[in-house]
C-alpha cells in the first residue's frame, strides 16, 4: 500500500460553487436538485460500487478523478448517489478503474450467450464451490489449478504494515531461499520508484510492471520467498498468476498495527490527519479482505510478538513444503 492512500480524504467533500457554462450562466449542482427527492436506488448502488472498486484499487478519490478526467466534485456526487452521470463519464471512470462498464454498472456476465449460460450455472453457489470451479477452469485452460506443482515459492500477501518484508527476510534466511521484494523488482524494471511510476505514468502502468515482475520472479526462482505489494490482489490476472504458481499466505494485522508499522518505517504523512487516515485504511482493508482470504493460509501478525509470529509462520511453511514435495 502506498503512503498516498493512507492520507487520502474520502469523506466530507465540500460543495463547490456552481460551474459556469459557455454563456456564463451558473449550472445548478446535481445534488441541489436531487436532494429534494428521494435518492434513486440504482444511483445509490452505482455509487457504492464505484467506492468499492476504488478502495480495492487503493486509489484516492482525487487520483481517480484525475485519471478519469472528471472533476473531483462530479466523482463525489457519483459516489454518493446524487450524480446522474452520463454514459461517457461512467466509461471514463470504468477505464480508470481498469474494469468493464458492465462491471461498474453491476453485471459483467452479459457479454455473450455463453457468459449468460455459465452465470446461470454458477449463480447462488457457495464460495467453496466457486473456488473448485475456478481451479477446474485453471486446469482446463492451463493457467493453474489445485494440482499445479507450486515448487517452493512462498508468497506473502497483505496490506502494507502487515510484516511481509520483515517476516519474509527472516523466512528466506531460515530456508536458504532467495528473498524477492516485488516492489523493488518493479522499480528495477521501471528505472524509478513506485511513487514516481504512479505519478508519471499512472496506476495502470504500475500494474503492468507489477505483472511483469511477478512473471519474471516465477520464471527465475523455483524456490523463493516473495513479498508482494498490498494492491496486487486488485488485478485479477496477476492475482490468478500468483495463486497458481505460489503457496500464498495472508499476513493479517489490526488496522492500528498497520498504521503504527507504516509510521515506524519513516512515513509520517499518515499522521497529518490520523482520523481520516485510519478511516481510509479500514476501508481499503474491507475492500481487499475478500481477495486476501483466497490465500491458502493466513497468520495474524497482531496476535503475538515478532518471534512468536515467525515461529508460527515457519511451522506453517514447513508443513506446506512437505505437502508440495
Layout: helices, strands, pairs:
Blueprint: H1 3-6, H2 30-34, H3 41-57, H4 61-68, H5 72-79, H6 87-96, H7 101-105, H8 113-122, H9 127-141, E1 152-157, H10 164-175, E2 179-181, H11 182-190, H12 194-201, H13 203-220, E3 223-227, H14 236-245, E4 247-252, H15 255-264, H16 274-292, E5 297-300, H17 306-324
Parallel strand pairs: 1-3, 1-4, 2-3, 4-5
Helix pairs in contact: 3-16, 4-5, 4-6, 10-17, 11-13, 12-13, 13-14, 15-16
Describe the 3D structure:
It is a single chain. This protein has 325 residues and is an alpha/beta fold. The chain has two domains: 3-15 and 29-105, lambda repressor-like DNA-binding domains (434 Repressor (Amino-terminal Domain), Orthogonal Bundle), CATH 1.10.260; 147-324, Rossmann fold. 58% of the residues lie in helices and 7% in strands. Helix 10 (164-175) packs across helix 17 (306-324). It starts with a helix and ends with a helix.
Task: Looking at this protein, list some descriptive labels.
325 residues, alpha/beta, 434 Repressor (Amino-terminal Domain), Rossmann fold, 2 domains, five-stranded parallel β-sheet, 58% helix
Amino acid at each position: 500500500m502506498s503512503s498516498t492512500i493512507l492520507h487520502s480524504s474520502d469523506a466530507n467533500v465540500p460543495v463547490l460553487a456552481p460551474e459556469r457554462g459557455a454563456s456564463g450562466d451558473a449550472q445548478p449542482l446535481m445534488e441541489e436538485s436531487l436532494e429534494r427527492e428521494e435518492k434513486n436506488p440504482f444511483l445509490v448502488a452505482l455509487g457504492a460500487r464505484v467506492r468499492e472498486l476504488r478502495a480495492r484499487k487503493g486509489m484516492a478519490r482525487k487520483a481517480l478523478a484525475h485519471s478519469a478526467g472528471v472533476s473531483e466534485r462530479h466523482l463525489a456526487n457519483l459516489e454518493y448517489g446524487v450524480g446522474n452521470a452520463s454514459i461517457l463519464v461512467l466509461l471514463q471512470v470504468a477505464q480508470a478503474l481498469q474494469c468493464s462498464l458492465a462491471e461498474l454498472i453491476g453485471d459483467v456476465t452479459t457479454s455473450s450467450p455463453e457468459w449468460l449460460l455459465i452465470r446461470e450455472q454458477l449463480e447462488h453457489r457457495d464460495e467453496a464451490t466457486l473456488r473448485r470451479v475456478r481451479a477446474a477452469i485453471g486446469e482446463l485452460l492451463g493457467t493453474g489449478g489445485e494440482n499445479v506443482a507450486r515448487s517452493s515459492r512462498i508468497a506473502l500477501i497483505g496490506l502494507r504494515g502487515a510484516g511481509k518484508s520483515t517476516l519474509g527476510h527472516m523466512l528466506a534466511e531460515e530456508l536458504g531461499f532467495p528473498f524477492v521484494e516485488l516492489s523493488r523488482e518493479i522499480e528495477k524494471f521501471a528505472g524509478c520508484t513506485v511513487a514516481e511510476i504512479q505519478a508519471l505514468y499512472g496506476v495502470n502502468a504500475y500494474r503492468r510492471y507489477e505483472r511483469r515482475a511477478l512473471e519474471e520472479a516465477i520464471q527465475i526462482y523455483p524456490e523463493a520467498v516473495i513479498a508482494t505489494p498490498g494492491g496486487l490482489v486488485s488485478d485479477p490476472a496477476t492475482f490468478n498468476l500468483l495463486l497458481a504458481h505460489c503457496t500464498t499466505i495472508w499476513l493479517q494485522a489490526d488496522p492500528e498495527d498497520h498504521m503504527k508499522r507504516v509510521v515506524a518505517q519513516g512515513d509520517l504523512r499518515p499522521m497529518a490527519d490520523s482520523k481520516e487516515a485510519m478511516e481510509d485504511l479500514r476501508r481499503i482493508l474491507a475492500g481487499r479482505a475478500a481477495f486476501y482470504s483466497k490465500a491458502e493460509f493466513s497468520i495474524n501478525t497482531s496476535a503475538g510478538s515478532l518471534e512468536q509470529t515467525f515461529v508460527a509462520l515457519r511451522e506453517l511453511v514447513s508443513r506446506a513444503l512437505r505437502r508440495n514435495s
